[in-house]
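In line with agreed milestones, work has continued on tokenised descriptions of protein folds. One protein thus recorded appears below exactly as we store it:

>
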Amino acid sequence: MADTLQMMKDFLSSASDDEWFFVATTTNYDDKDLLHWMVKQPDCPQAAAHAIYWMMGPGHYTKLKSVDDASEWEKPTFKLLRDIEKSFGAKFYKDSGIGFAPAADSMGEINWVDEYSESPIGVPIPEFMKAQTPGRNLSRSDIPDGWDDGMPPHVVEAVWKESEEE
């Protein structure tokens, strides 16, 4: 099978800020390797990192006081959420002019803050993560034709071609 992760990294190395955001908001969240890589890049738009954070379901992880309380499958996401919070608070992410509002997500048409409520016993969601990233709002209608599962058309084609050859 083609190295989809490497193809996506190569794509993102020259992708527009909108494309970064489309990857973040339409990708399959079962395989988090690309997401982990994205949020460690200084070219990652703030809105993309913000969307990744909320789409990871941070409310679920507020029941945990530390990574030691997490199950094996929860640990990578728990750590990723804390890393995003730290980077977000340090203003690590690129200001791209793209907005993201966790309480009124224009891509998913969902209120992430209400959808995934916090537990009072563990690590709370920082207030700055609940605030809106200012900028222009993108919607599903802005995604170029041919995108599938967070991948641009040329990567989709390569993945399909490779799977047909197997």
Notes: Helices lie at 4-12, 17-26, 33-38, 46-55, 75-89, 112-115, 127-130, 153-165. The mean pLDDT is 91. The longest helix spans residues 75-89.
